[in-house]
Amino acid sequence: MTESRPSASTAQSDAAARRAAWSAYWQAGALHSCVGSWSGNYGGAIAAFWSRSFAALANGARVLDLATGNGPLPQLLLQQRPDDAALRIDAVDAAALAPAWYRADAQPRLRFHQGVAMEALPFADGSFDLVTSQYGFEYADRAPALAELLRVLAPRGGVALVMHHAGSVLVEVARSELRHQARLLADDGLLAAAAAVVPWFALARAGGNPGADPAARRARAAYNAAQQALSTAIAGEHAPDLLVDVRDAVHRLVAATGADPAPTLAALADWRAGLGNAALRSRELVACALHPGDVADLRDAIVTARGGGVTVAELGQEEGVLGWSLESA
Ligand SMILES: C[S@@+](CC[C@H](N)C(=O)[O-])C[C@H]1O[C@@H](n2cnc3c(N)ncnc32)[C@H](O)[C@@H]1O
Hints:
Elements: H1 8-27, H2 44-55, E1 62-65, H3 72-80, E2 88-93, E3 110-114, E4 128-134, H4 142-152, E5 153-163, H5 169-185, H6 190-205, H7 214-235, H8 241-255, H9 262-288, H10 292-306, E6 310-317, E7 320-328
Helix pairs in contact: 1-9, 2-3, 5-9, 6-7, 6-8, 6-9, 7-8, 8-9
The structure holds S-adenosylmethionine (SAM).
């Protein structure tokens, strides 16, 4: 059986859903997309790569950061070059952003452009001395995004990218989170069972006697079974943090249900929406991660278009492979 291609309207609604999921993530205030791995800005091998790349910039350079999120890379660059008053950074992302650390009047060297796709950049040809992206470029429709990247790059400009690697520890974590998210969101999962039992808890709080109703007893039994199944899964998991967090949060919410079930049901719906968005981001990460052939194709396309050398390497540290780095000479 051949795989059918998504229709144009499916692709558009997928793109809109991805934009919405990322917008919700950035509005919640994270600086970057890997807060589980680096609590502040990026550190370790990733920070070292960027520090080396930024050190080669001349004063007053123009830098473009693609798929910037809430601007972790611009932040690193501004911190590394406090005296480079003429430095100009443009930072674009398809999503709606909310970089809490940024004030336009306090950081005049940086401009964010939200709602801007890498495949259609609003900049003149040859504008930038360096184009960067951290876990971003690989999310694009790569051929048109590369054409745009090369169009806006100055003739002697450079490219520096860190991209997801199909064999990285981050992809491994995303795969296991996908399993956890699917378990929690399943029709017989904890969130559905909790939403079904809450109205009966509320009835009891209001002085009713739900125990007399077989439907209430079934909902209670299903909720207990979902809690039990989750505890069993947690015991068998190497990194069950998400399952533990959701189990405990749902338990607290259900236990605090009052005579009106609406607030608890709304909080459960928020959890469901948040987990749905997180699952979408995990799926996207796994799907975008590059295999050796993908990154070789990207390198070859840049070399063909511009000549010169392009270096591709695995970026890793003690925990394992973190991604691919790609740098033009
Ligand atoms: C994994 S996040 C990385 C963000 C940031 N660079 C970081 O290191 O935290 C990927 C970002 O790519 C953005 N994105 C995905 N496809 C895009 C596109 N075609 N054009 C612009 N941004 C895109 C998403 O909105 C998201 O903010």
